[in-house]
Amino acid sequence: MFETLILMLDATMRVSAPLILAALAGLYAERSGIVDIGLEGKILGSAFAAAAGAAVYGSAWIGLGFGVLASVFLAMIHGFACITHRGDHIVSGVAINTIVAGLTVTLSMNWFSMGGQTPTLSGDARFLSVTLPFADALADVPVIGLIYSELLSGHNILVYLAFLMVPATYWAIYKTRFGLRLRAVGENPHAVDTAGISVAFVRYRALIICGILCGIAGAYLSTAHNAGFLKDMSAGKGYMALAALIFGKWRPVPVLFACLLFGFLDALAIRMQGVEIAGIGEVPVQAIEVLPYVLTVLLLAGFIGKAVGPKAIGRPYVKERA
Amino acid sequence: MKGVFVASLTALAISSTMVSAADPAVVYDQAGKFDKSFNEGVYNGVKKYTAESKIQVREFEPKNEAQVEQGLRRLATRGYSPIVSVGFNMTSAVEKVAKDFPDVKFTIIDGVIDLPNVQSVVFKEHEGSFVVGALAAMASKTDAVGFVGGMDIPLIRRFGCGYEQGAKYVSSSATVLQNMTGSTGAAFNDPTKGSELAKSQFSQGADVVFAAAGGTGIGVYQAAKDEGKFAIGVDSNQNHIQPGTMLTSMVKRVDQAAYNTYKDAEMGTWKSGIVVLGLAEGGVDWALDDNNASLVTAEMKAKVEDIRSKIISGDIKVHDYMSDSTCTY
User: Fold this and answer.
1) In 3D, which of B142, B145, B113 has the Cα closest to residue B129?
2) pLDDT tens across A119-167, in order?
3) For residue B20, what pLDDT is reported?
4) Could you give the CA distance from residue B157 to residue B322 in angstroms, rounded to a whole number?
5) N or C: where does chain A have the smaller number of CB atoms within 10 Å of the terminal CB?
């Protein structure tokens, strides 16, 4: 029982890593007042760029670089439309999602002629799992050994990075001058402007960070969790991350737990399949599959209370003229 | 030879005045023609036909379920015939369109439609799955094998049921873990979920996993490679995807089904009705090539061949899940 639980938590870490990265990316953007429904597109774009880069240059790190570049580029398009030209954030975000969904497949058909996939990656072109020191030596120690060797060790480096980003984000948002300005820009841009700080510049910087984080999430999907790009491989993770962001009320630590909950329900769904439960018998796949969504709705409706976003979110900033 | 050619040309000319020109077409399912599995098998048949006959086959890849019927209808309106449609999920769409275009020949793979202008090609997947299940149990050191299905439909359960019977035939104490990826067509193209399901089965003790899940299988094979376990491919010969990890593939000759449809239509011998292809007809089989030769010992090979011939001769009866929707045998 204990072992099963550990193995489920182990799967939870793998599944929730991209969610955490994407949700934190959304946190930076939304805290600065930019609605980012384009997380999905950025993840997908980065997944493709990372897989393509890794396939051509044979290095996962170069792939990661390409992924981040692609994602930041998309974030900058979003910024150019929403910040500089004061466009509608949702429209711009949806446009990015749609363009990327088509563009990735078209480009990969043209470059690799494999019907919208990239070549299968192996060896150095992938982020392989890292075994933490003493993991094998400690494996036989009861309780702690299992937790350390199964749960904590044996993930790839991007998983650890995703979890490290949570305290880092907490620190950046709440403990730094940039974080203070970022939050202020999302709540009351006029006040920030009065203080002599450029609202646009702060928002652009928030979007760059958002791009980098989505880039890592995308690279994780195609070069770490899987071995290559497949069309639509982001499979709604960007939207899930957005839900987790709202669920976590735009705060780093609650967002982490929201992502872990989604990941855990996914892992649970996989585990529960085909298992006989006393008194009920075998639970059908469909019932298990629907569980994460039902729980999300219940929790959102009943338990977490009102989720209030940043005040100035979605509104383009216009300087008042005398 | 020349006479035959001229004769067939005239025949073609006559038939083209009656119906429209013999323009073959194919509609793949949502996983796309390069899923390295089911659709790609059909694509290989299409390629072979085009290479031999120099006749281009019009291809259509729907992006969502709603496009299937539209695509079929458009192809039929433009006079394409025969139209091969790939996959169980298209059954109702093909049925509707086939009723509206009685002059167009349709072939559906994996589905059954009772109409005078539809040929339904179905396979005895349970027989092929039995064979690879037996091989899986022989290769397993933990006496536990896994099965990852795509969409939860009777057709996929038929794979799982045959596999289970094969594994239990070799080792009656074997544990067979079974998982389905999902309950929509998208379950055939979700490698991330596939890899998680496989890892979950490995952690429960399985060391050979059979994926009957189209594109989802790619994630399953990757997981098997990462953890040093064995995997079994499906539909196409997938042994080349992860050499050294792929124990074998349960080959379903969908390429032959597509090719035969085009060839028969060209020759005028195409017939409607149900075509059932099993081990005896060469419609399903297990794959042995350079990529997995080192994994299959001579002893295993002999045993598998023995089981194979026993199924063909009827000494082993493989229960078909779809005959009574249960897997009791």
Assistant:
1) B145
2) 888 778 888 888 777 777 777 777 777 778 777 888 889 999 999 999 9
3) 41
4) 8
5) C
Return the exposure string of A105-118: e unless at least 16 CB atoms fall within 10 Å of the residue's CB, then b.
Answer: beebeeebeebbbb
Residues across chain A: 322
Partner residue facing A231 (CB), from B32, B192, B222: B32
Q: Which long-range contacts (CB under 8 A, 24 or more apart) does A75-82 make?
A: A75/A29, A75/A38, A75/A42, A75/A207, A75/A208, A75/A210, A75/A211, A75/A214, A76/A204, A76/A207, A76/A208, A76/A211, A78/A34, A78/A36, A78/A38, A78/A207, A79/A34, A79/A203, A79/A204, A79/A207, A82/A34, A82/A316
Residue B130: phi and psi, rounded to 5, are: -60, -45
Residue B32 has pLDDT above 80, yes or no: no
Give the C-alpha separation, A296 to A287, whole Å.
Answer: 15
**What's the CA gap between B238 and B37, in Å, rounded?**
7
* B290 contacts B270 by C-beta, under 8 angstroms: no
pTM: 0.77
* Predicted interface score ipTM higher than 0.90: no
d(Cα A19, Cα A21) in Å, to the nearest integer?
5
Q: Is the pLDDT of residue B7 over 80?
A: no
CB environment A295-310: b (16+ within 10 A), e (fewer) = ebeeeeeeeeeeeebb
Which residues in chain B are closer than 8 Å to A267, comparing Cβ atoms? 196, 200
CB contact under 8 A, A15 and B196: yes
Q: Delineate the domains of chain B, giving CATH numbers in brackets.
A: 2-124+254-277 (3.40.50.2300), 126-251+284-324 (3.40.50.2300)
Chain A hits for B180, CB-CB cut-off 8 Å, are: 273, 285
Q: With bands split at pLDDT 50, 70 and 90, how would you rate the model's confidence at B8?
A: low
Q: Where are the domains of chain A?
A: 18-234
Confidence check: pLDDT of A4 > 90 = no
- Candidates A114, A226, A274; nearest CB to B219: A226
Average pLDDT value for residue range A251-280: 81
